Amino acid sequence: MRIGLYPGTFDPITLGHTDIIQRAMALVDRLVIGVAINRDKGPLFDLEERVAMVRAECDQIARRTGGEIHVHPFENLLIDCARDVGATVIVRGLRAVADFEYEFQMVGMNRALDASIETVFLMADARRQAIASKLVKEIARLGGDVSKFVTPDVRIALTGKLG
């Protein structure tokens, strides 16, 4: 069984994330969504809220695709998380060339830690390339409409969190 790990903070999960999740499902038998705790980023949503949002979105994707998706919170090294869940592939989404430099460095470090775990990059769909959780939160914080960037449930959660 080919197991993939798609890690991220998912604060909140966006249509860009779900696009990558749906396409990654075609590459693996089981996809684990690793929700990073990452206290340094100071997330808007706490871990339980992010896991619940990711789980709700992934449950819908799994029903549509018939695929197997698991949600797994983690705080350790990405490569250790991959080992913990039995992943042989790490899935990363790229929006722009700027993403590639950081991701390139991460791949090098991860390969040095465990060369048996491969990293696969999926380019964001052209309609989703501008979507970033940070920007979605900023738009919502300033009262803008985020319905083009997140699902209705996530929009409601954002509105509830930001007042």
UniProtKB/TrEMBL annotation:
<keyword id="KW-0808">Transferase</keyword>
<dbReference type="InterPro" id="IPR001980">
    <property type="entry name" value="PPAT"/>
</dbReference>
<comment type="similarity">
    <text>Belongs to the bacterial CoaD family.</text>
</comment>
<protein>
    <recommendedName>
        <fullName>Phosphopantetheine adenylyltransferase</fullName>
        <ecNumber>2.7.7.3</ecNumber>
    </recommendedName>
</protein>
<dbReference type="InterPro" id="IPR004821">
    <property type="entry name" value="Cyt_trans-like"/>
</dbReference>
<keyword id="KW-0067">ATP-binding</keyword>
<feature type="binding site">
    <location>
        <position position="9"/>
    </location>
    <ligand>
        <name>substrate</name>
    </ligand>
</feature>
<dbReference type="GO" id="GO:0005524">
    <property type="term" value="F:ATP binding"/>
</dbReference>
<dbReference type="InterPro" id="IPR014729">
    <property type="entry name" value="Rossmann-like_a/b/a_fold"/>
</dbReference>
<feature type="binding site">
    <location>
        <position position="78"/>
    </location>
    <ligand>
        <name>substrate</name>
    </ligand>
</feature>
<keyword id="KW-0963">Cytoplasm</keyword>
<keyword id="KW-0547">Nucleotide-binding</keyword>
<dbReference type="GO" id="GO:0004595">
    <property type="term" value="F:pantetheine-phosphate adenylyltransferase activity"/>
</dbReference>
<feature type="binding site">
    <location>
        <position position="92"/>
    </location>
    <ligand>
        <name>substrate</name>
    </ligand>
</feature>
<comment type="subunit">
    <text>Homohexamer.</text>
</comment>
<feature type="binding site">
    <location>
        <begin position="128"/>
        <end position="134"/>
    </location>
    <ligand>
        <name>ATP</name>
    </ligand>
</feature>
<comment type="pathway">
    <text>Cofactor biosynthesis; coenzyme A biosynthesis; CoA from (R)-pantothenate: step 4/5.</text>
</comment>
<comment type="function">
    <text>Reversibly transfers an adenylyl group from ATP to 4'-phosphopantetheine, yielding dephospho-CoA (dPCoA) and pyrophosphate.</text>
</comment>
<dbReference type="Pfam" id="PF01467">
    <property type="entry name" value="CTP_transf_like"/>
</dbReference>
<dbReference type="GO" id="GO:0015937">
    <property type="term" value="P:coenzyme A biosynthetic process"/>
</dbReference>
<feature type="domain" description="Cytidyltransferase-like">
    <location>
        <begin position="5"/>
        <end position="138"/>
    </location>
</feature>
<feature type="binding site">
    <location>
        <position position="41"/>
    </location>
    <ligand>
        <name>substrate</name>
    </ligand>
</feature>
<dbReference type="GO" id="GO:0005737">
    <property type="term" value="C:cytoplasm"/>
</dbReference>
<feature type="binding site">
    <location>
        <begin position="9"/>
        <end position="10"/>
    </location>
    <ligand>
        <name>ATP</name>
    </ligand>
</feature>
<feature type="site" description="Transition state stabilizer">
    <location>
        <position position="17"/>
    </location>
</feature>
<keyword id="KW-0548">Nucleotidyltransferase</keyword>
<feature type="binding site">
    <location>
        <position position="17"/>
    </location>
    <ligand>
        <name>ATP</name>
    </ligand>
</feature>
<feature type="binding site">
    <location>
        <begin position="93"/>
        <end position="95"/>
    </location>
    <ligand>
        <name>ATP</name>
    </ligand>
</feature>
<keyword id="KW-0173">Coenzyme A biosynthesis</keyword>
<keyword id="KW-0460">Magnesium</keyword>
<feature type="binding site">
    <location>
        <position position="103"/>
    </location>
    <ligand>
        <name>ATP</name>
    </ligand>
</feature>
